[in-house]
Amino acid sequence: MLQQAPAAAADAAVVKETTTQTFVKDVIDESRRQPVLVDFWAPWCGPCKQLTPVLEKAVKAAKGKVKLVKMNIDEHPAIAGQMGIQSIPAVIAFVNGQPADGFMGALPESQVVSFLERLTKDRIGGETKDLLDAAEAALADGDAAGAAEIYGQLLAEDATNVPALAGLARAYVETGALDQAKQTLAMVPEAKQNDAAVAAARAAFELAEQAKKIGPISELEQKVAANPLDHQARFDLALALNSKGRRQDALEQLIAIVKRDRKWNDDGARKQLVQFFDAWGPTDEATIEGRRKLSSILFA
Questions:
Q1: Which option is the CATH number for 217-298: 1.25.40.10, 1.10.260.40, 3.30.450.40, 3.40.1190.20?
Q2: Is pLDDT at 126 greater than 60 in this prediction?
Q3: Which of 36, 48, 55, 294 is catalytic?
Q4: Whether 48 is catalytic
């Protein structure tokens, strides 16, 4: 029996297939040692066939800093469904047991390499990373103005800093400066539009735009109390609650619609939840809780 060559064995160690049953071991547990990319694909997907070889090449070139796990969603649809993935190819990076970053679509090799470099922190210098972390912390603490100031410092040094552009757009959304948020998003290079941070900022902006068109929370709460089956009022209430930072409350309203009538408004409540997840980010507590509750309903 022929023994596997050392190079082939190394390649096999960083690239593998997974199933619903082995996902926790292959992805969640393994990501506590180094980042793990999950490539959600299907045999009929043309762009998937373009992306997967590019991913494999980039991951092998990273020499053990990151692993690639491929999941055929035709054979194993549950995980993709639970994560709200609606189109493929979709690549989600797991770090320390949690989704941390990702992108959709067949990116060229240069962008895949850049994504891996950012993920493994080879590209972002220590000072820049510290400033990004400080801005994120300020945004999480509700200090959108302070976050915007830090993002502005980063952009003064590098106007193409995509995480800073995305962060600044989110800070503008938080302060209600939607015109500035829109202008900032327009500054993101076309090639970076699929970046996870940019997608999150864009989703937050779109949600804020939607929230401008609905009534006060108190009126919507009265409508829902008067008629719990008024799904449109409950849907609007979720948007209004989210616009005020009440993510858990917004989540509960949409989950209530999914429980009562999954098909309402062409599956509108579930689709809105997915947009919430995009805006909140994959590691936000509300996103994690929402995906858990949604999957418990959809796959019960």
A1: 1.25.40.10
A2: no
A3: 48
A4: yes
Cis peptide before 53 (omega within 30 of 0): no
CATH of domain 6-119: 3.40.30.10
Architecture of the domain spanning 126-209 = Alpha Horseshoe (1.25)
DSSP 72: E
177 given a catalytic annotation: no
> Domain-by-domain residue ranges, the chain?
6-119, 126-209, 217-298
pLDDT of residue 31: 86
Q: What is the DSSP string of 79-137?
A: HHHHTT--SSSEEEEEETTEEEEEEES---HHHHHHHHHHHTTSSS-HHHHHHHHHHHH
Whether this model's pTM surpasses 0.85: no
Please report, for the chain, how many H helices and E strands are present, in that order: 15, 5
